[in-house]
Specification:
Blueprint: H1 3-13, E1 18-22, E2 26-27, H2 67-70, H3 73-81, E3 84-87, E4 94-99, H4 102-111, E5 116-119, E6 124-129, E7 135-139, E8 142-145, E9 151-152, H5 166-171, H6 202-217, H7 223-238, H8 246-258, H9 263-277
Antiparallel strand pairs: 1-2, 1-3, 3-9, 4-6, 4-8, 5-6, 7-8
Helix pairs in contact: 6-7, 6-8, 7-9
């Protein structure tokens, strides 16, 4: 039995649903049926342990306390290849405030009620008893990981665990949105195509745009690079088949501008991606 699997079984016995992470601290890729979320995300994907695939799929949603699943052949292979063990905080009734550097830790010590802490590579995890919606970048270098998210397991930590305070919940409250200029719309022209995405079903395009919006929205750092890579990925998949419209591009620009990108930056990133791909 690998050390990762041993740790996972100990977590499961304590009621903490684990999942394997590959090297780089990312979940294992989905199986062929679920690749690129082609399965539609599975029904009821709002709680851990709902994916019935033989191997770990859908990241946090695969986390489970069922030892029969954790020790199955497909999962055992994943554990043997894993670079780390993660867990689903929400599935254990917990919320993790992920402090990514010393400045964030100093802010937490001055602002948040004390609770159990776990040292990380660059900062600390502050763990509270209670569940809330997960949010990235609630302030510089601070993420909240609870429901529908995962955190790396780095040990039980030190100190007593306290109840999830309102000050942490308030971090996720949406601030009034400052009106931004309407996104600049860029018409997409393709060498060939009639608006039909021949290599996929029509739903594939909609899923791709939705996932692209989400990728931009969840960017915690390096927004410029994330926007460019996302535009590049969308154009790689759909830039030549003629199915993209101004509406789709407008959705991507709106997501980017909501993260602080200017219309000029959006247009430049789009044009650079088109130039690189020759579309």
């Amino acid at each position: 039995m690998s050390e990762n699997l041993r740790t996972a079984l100990e977590l499961a016995a304590a009621g903490v649903p684990p999942l394997p992470l590959r090297v780089g601290k990312l979940p294992f890729g989905n199986c062929r049926t679920c690749a690129k979320n082609l399965c539609g995300g599975r029904p009821n994907m709002k709680q851990a342990g709902v994916c019935l695939c033989a191997a770990p799929c859908h990241a946090w949603a695969a986390a489970t306390t069922d030892p029969a699943v954790l020790t199955s052949p497909a999962w055992a292979r994943a554990w043997s290849q894993a670079g780390a063990v993660a867990y689903h905080p929400g599935g254990a009734g917990l919320t993790v405030v992920d402090l990514d550097n010393a400045a964030a830790v100093a802010w937490a010590r001055a602002t948040l009620p004390t609770t159990r802490t776990v040292a990380t590579t660059r900062g600390e995890h502050w763990i509270y008893q209670g569940v809330m919606t997960s949010h990235n970048a609630v302030r510089p270098d601070v993420d909240i990981k609870s429901s529908m998210s995962y955190a790396r397991w780095l040990g039980p930590g030190t100190g007593p665990m306290t109840a999830l305070p309102d000050v942490v919940r308030a971090l996720a409250a949406k601030e009034p949105v400052t009106p931004r200029p309407a996104p600049r719309t860029v018409a997409v022209t393709a060498p060939t195509g009639d608006g039909q995405c021949r290599h996929r079903t029509p739903a594939y395009l909609e899923r791709g745009i939705t996932m692209a919006e989400q990728r931009i929205t969840e960017a915690a750092a390096g927004v410029h690079a994330t926007v460019y890579r996302t535009f590049l990925a969308v154009l790689s998949a759909h830039g030549r088949c003629g199915c993209l419209t101004d509406v789709h591009v407008g959705r991507l620009f709106t997501a980017a501008q909501a993260k602080g990108e200017s219309p000029r930056h959006c247009a430049d990133a789009w044009d650079n991606a088109r130039t690189r791909l020759g579309v």
